[in-house]
Specification:
Length: 521
Amino acid sequence: MKKFTIDKSDEIAEIIDRILNEAEKEITLVVPKGSALVKSVSNFRLLKREADSAGRSITIESVDDTALAFAKEAGLQSGHPLWNPVKGTGGISDITAPAATTTPAADQPKSASLTGPATAADEDHDTDDMNDEEDEEETERKFLSKNLLIGAAVVIGVFAVGFWIVGTFFNRADVTIDFKQTPWAFQGNFLADKAATGINGATNIIPAQIFTTDKNITQTFPASAVSNTAQKAHGTITIVNDYSTASQDLVATTRFQTPDGKIFRITQNVTVPGAKSAGGKLTSSSIAAPIVADQGGPDYNVGPIAHLTIPGFQGTPKYNGFYGVINASTTGGLIGKHATPTTADIANAKTKTTQVLQSSLQGGFSGTYPNNFKILDGATAIQVTKLTVNTSTDENGNFSVFGEATLSAIGFDESALKTYLLSLAQSQEQNSVFKSLDLSYGTVKANFPKGQVSFSLSVQSELEPSFSVDDFKTGVLGKSINDARSTIAALPNLSDGKISVWPFWLVHIPSNANKVHVTVN
């Protein structure tokens, strides 16, 4: 089989001459896309006729769909080099090319030489060719029109599918609703009382709750005087209960004795917790307390000491069950010149310790009660329960003050008060809610013994109709846009409403609630 490729500019006469000059009977003609041969189906018919007359078998191979269609129309074997390869020419498809349509030899027209002299028969033949060419041009026009219609249908189908996909999977609706707002104001006096169990609308008495928190600190201050007196050592002792599960109270100045007979005293009342009992075995408990030496001088700068007895329990079973431990050395014991606080030093130290206690309690109080409770300015009180001064100075000449205080506050549930105020507003404007609410409190008076706080209240607010976004969505999902507009228009106290959809050609609200976004202004 002979195979050759024609040039795009080759005319039909040139191609036929080349075929007739070939010795091979079977010829594959490779037609490039855009070839002049593809201008008319009549070229392929002429090629078929001349090849048959010369005893040649012609096969058309091309990537041009029009060339393949014209070849088939003319009765020539044809194939795509990849998808419908000509047998013996390669390709990657396993699809067999359709059998060639051949015209019986008896039906084939006789061909004259392209260069021989014209005869009468040739003239008749030329007339037939002209008629054939007109028929072929008409067929070609119909073929091209059909292809255009098919192409247009495909394009329309693609666009239709695209519109459907966008409208079904990427659709959304944005709804904006503006309501008219109605001003509402209120002024009144209230009493928050710990004895109240609910809000009394006739007397404006609301429930109150008392909150308390404790704080203790030790502050050091410089002593400004110098004296020749003996100074007592001081430190911390751990008191151990290895006796029973019952707690034990020890008063300030309770004595503890070292193995060599030195006496230390605790400086404050202490309750030693009870020991733990499990499986018949007692586990000791303990508590730390400050101590001071019974006498002045450096001899009492001692420790650590593993066991100090309590002389007050001597002769009782508690003597061996309770004891003290000094884990760190006591310090400050000396005789001679040393710093001593004056009366003014002590008074100033007490004042500053009180101020630190108050500031610390107020600063750390806000997180100790529920967020929905309101504590008004003037509804808190701080009581200093203990100020103990240790006049013994350390090696730097500082003495210490131990302070303890309790903060008490009377508060009320502000969220419950707002609910009560809304009920008052709804008695004038039914089915309304607060769009904005501003509460101003004044004239606060607290009575801590009774657990009461009175105050005045001024309210400025804006009301709007009660509206459920979820209920609205449920009501419009899948509805036509006109029906959704009617639903919005029927809302009470409506100021304005707007529906925006994407894509723009949607005529229904999406049925998926996640694709509907509602904004209320």
